[in-house]
Amino acid sequence: MLKKVILCLLAPLLIGGCASGKGVDVQKTQSLKEAYADYFLIGNIASGVDMDDLRYDILTTHHNIVTAENAMKPQYLQGTKGVFTFGDADAIVDKALSRGLKVHGHTLAWHQQSPAWMNSEGVSRETAVSNLITHAKTVVEHFKGRVVSWDVLNEAISDNPPNSEDWRTGLRQSPWFKAIGADYVEIVFKAAREADPKAKLYYNDYNLDNPSKAAAVYNMVKDINERNPDVDGRPLIDGIGMQGHYNSRTNPANVENSLQRFISLGVEVSITELDVQYGEAGKQTDEQKIAQGLVYAELFNVFKKYAEYIGRVTMWGIDDSSSWRKQACPTMFNDTLRPKPAFFGALDTDKFIAENKAFIEEIREKEKKEAKQADAVYGTPSGLADVSAWSQAPAIPIDNYLMAWQGAYGAARVLWDESSLYVLVNVNNAEMNKANLNAYEQDSVEIFIDENNGKTPYYEKDDAQYRVNFDNEATFNPSSAAEGFESWTSVSERSYTVSLKIPFRTITAKEGGVIGFDAQINGASAQGARQSVAIWNDLSGGSYQDPSGLGVLKLTKR
Ligand code: XIL
User: Fold this and answer.
1) Which residue lies with its CA nearest to atom 16 of ligand 1?
2) Which of 33-37, 145-149, 474-478 has the lowest mean pLDDT?
3) Do 310 and 262 touch, CB atoms closer than 8 A?
């Protein structure tokens, strides 16, 4: 009852949430770009479907800069060597300019959505360098005067750089890196600067709220700018783009720490692809909508605080139905293009927080207790190849994606006895690639265990991580977790199965007991770099060092 009253008080925010709730026509009342006119530019993406009038009205009402969602990616501009196809991108750019929007360019070099002829298939270093320079120069020159800034290089640093101090070791094993080496970074920035000295040149990446990834990016930009202090009058790299694909577990304090770190380099920072996953299967509860609004509000508070150094804040998606992550409802507008609480959270951060804070804290408390739960069933398989032994255990879906790409996914089933946990994982849609020297970048399965379900933010002696690739090669964290461990794999086309025997290290298992548990699938690309991560519960991306976000496994007997 109380909740109903609260929800009804929030009627203006919860469009459709209360029977009498009447939608706010935001196009007539408040504009995001006007609210932030003294702070930074407000951006969003456009693709062909956004050119019709209602969607375009939202673009122009609330935004003053636009990024092409896909049209300027290498695959679309030069799918065939030497044949540049600018038509779709030009249409987006010209319409945006004619309606008074600025345009940001995305992206010249990336490991996704790029044709293999550029840098794979046995292309020599010399040819790859020439392909990279030709592409960057031709594209930047084509849009010169129309595009104010470029994501010159996208996602070049890997997710868990082994040593952030030495940024070269943190470079993703991408096709460009493999064909050219670490100097491809400078090569592409120099080509872009030469082609349009006025355009601002950005390095762009995701998960930059992760301190070790942010440190590697910081060191890369620092090193390159120190060695290239005057390329047409200024350091080579003008800015760092924090993509900002966030979720319900994102801590705005981590975002702020990285912002501060980048600002200290003297470069501009922009938030370039903001969305906040907060929902499942394309649905959001009213509580989730408010909680998502709070994340937007807290993030925009951070952005306002550093506005002096921030060029723009660009959202990645006008509305949930067109979002690349529509299953998780991550944008500010719902499927009928009505503003969600996320919009109001961004629009007037203080007001939103004041009105909703108590309610939100209650929700967050509840969410903490509500890590996903699944049952492990009592039983000991006769051997790890005896996959039918797991048929009595319920399937645990491993399909929440943590990275930009949505590749390999699957499900786990778990058995237990007094001494061990037995996990079976079926993986679909895998490339079966283990070329990368980093074990976590190979097609592989990871299991995280917190035996006392202590949910500490760091590993204690009961916590461990187990990784097995499709070829049955195992790695452990800590290495002592290898003791008594066994695994088995079987592969067929794009699917593989892994079974693992994980001995308990600090407990004797009992019926009714609970342990922290998560299962992750790393998907490699055909070029041998991790392009996708799917997990059951922990969306933080930090389960390898922080078990507090793992799901919960209940030990049952049937
Ligand atoms: C995404 C687009 O939104 C999708 O339409 C496309 O299928 C894949 O790429 N990081 C980036 C963006 O830099 O280019 C990606 O965009 C999202 C992740």
Assistant:
1) 69
2) 474-478
3) no
List all residues 6 or more positions away from 273 whose beta carbon is below 8 Å from its beta carbon. Answer: 204, 206, 241, 243, 244, 245, 314, 315, 316
In 3D space, the residue among 295, 347, 341 whose CA is nearest the CA of residue 14 turns out to be: 341
Q: Distance (Å, rounded) from C-alpha 354 to C-alpha 352?
A: 6
Q: Which two tokens stand for residue 444?
A: 């592989």
Query: Measured between alpha carbons, how far is 81 from 134 in angstroms, rounded to an integer?
Result: 10
Which pair of structure tokens corresponds to residue 292?
């998502």
Q: Is the CB of 275 under 6 A from ligand 1?
A: no
| Straight-line distance from the first to the last Cα atom of the chain, in angstroms, rounded to the nearest whole number | 38
**Mind listing the domains of the chain with CATH numbers?**
33-365 (3.20.20.80), 373-556 (2.60.40.1190)
Q: Which of 54, 50, 175, 178 is nearest to 110 (CA)?
A: 175
Q: How confident is the model at residue 368 (pLDDT cuts 50, 70, 90)?
A: low
CA 113 – ligand 1 centroid, Å? 9
Q: Catalytic residue positions?
A: 155, 205, 273
Strands 444-450, 514-524: pairing kind: antiparallel
CA distance linking residue 134 with residue 140, whole number of Å: 10
Q: List the beta bridge partners of residue 410.
A: 398, 427
- Of 535, 514, 516, nearest to 463 (Cα)? 516
**Does residue 236 register a pLDDT over 60?**
yes
Q: Is the pLDDT of residue 139 over 50?
A: yes
Let me know: does 524 contact 433? Beta carbons within 8 Å: yes
Please state, as a whole number, how many other Cβ atoms lie within 10 Å of the Cβ of residue 37: 12
CB of 331 within 8 A of CB of 324? no
Structure tokens at 174: 């991408």
How is residue 343 written in tokens? 């919009």
The CA R_g of the chain, rounded to the nearest whole Å, is 24
The pick from 324, 327, 402, 406 for probing ligand 1's pocket by mutation, whose C-beta has the most ligand atoms within 8 angstroms, reads 324
Provide the whole-model pTM: 0.72
Beta carbon of 164 within 6 Å of any ligand 1 atom: no
Verify whether ligand 1 is closer than 6 Å to residue 205 (CB atom).
no
- 3-class secondary structure per residue, 104-131: EEEEEECCCCCCHHHCCCCCCHHHHHHH
β-bridge pairing 409-416 and 400-401: unpaired
Residue nearest to atom 4 of ligand 1 (CA): 324
Q: Which of 177, 140, 179, 264 is nearest to 214 (CA)?
A: 264
Burial class (CB in 10 A: 0-12, 13-18, 19+), 429: middle
Place of tokens 């400078």: 186
- Closest by CA to 36, choosing from 299, 324, 275, 264, is 299
Task: State the amino acid at position 98 in one-letter form.
Answer: S
- Share of residues in the chain with pLDDT > 90 (%): 80
Of 438, 505, 443, 509, whose CA–CA distance to 478 is shortest?
A: 505
> 206 near 325, Cβ under 8 Å?
no
